[in-house]
Design brief:
With about 90 residues, the chain is α+β, with helices and mostly antiparallel strands. The chain is built from two helices and four strands; from the N terminus they run E-H-E-E-H-E. It has a four-stranded antiparallel β-sheet, covered by helices on one side.
């Protein structure tokens, strides 16, 4: 069994309120969840209007599949127009 996770520190330029930030983060989370069928959550900075930490996790039997899927999710997050990726961390167990 392989457990893989990836965490991004995100900057959300242009978010003037927490309500606007929550809308942007929820939209990104929903898109990731539906497109890649992984668990996704906002894991830090919930009360900061222009920053977010987003994490995804998956369980599989194939390490190569986990790495490939995390590559695709990483590319998807990096290409999202409302966020800037400050850093990313990947872990595979």
């Amino acid at each position: 069994m392989v457990v893989a996770s990836m965490t991004w520190e995100l900057k959300l330029p242009g978010c003037a309120s927490l309500k606007e930030k929550r809308s942007a983060v929820k939209s990104l989370k929903d898109r990731i969840r539906h497109r890649f069928n992984v668990s996704v959550s906002e894991t830090a900075h919930q009360d900061v209007r222009d920053r977010a930490q987003l994490s995804v996790a998956l369980v599989t039997t194939d390490t190569r599949f986990a790495d490939t899927l995390l590559d695709h999710v990483d590319h998807f997050v990096a290409g999202h127009t409302r966020v800037i990726v400050v850093s990313a961390r990947r872990e595979v167990y």
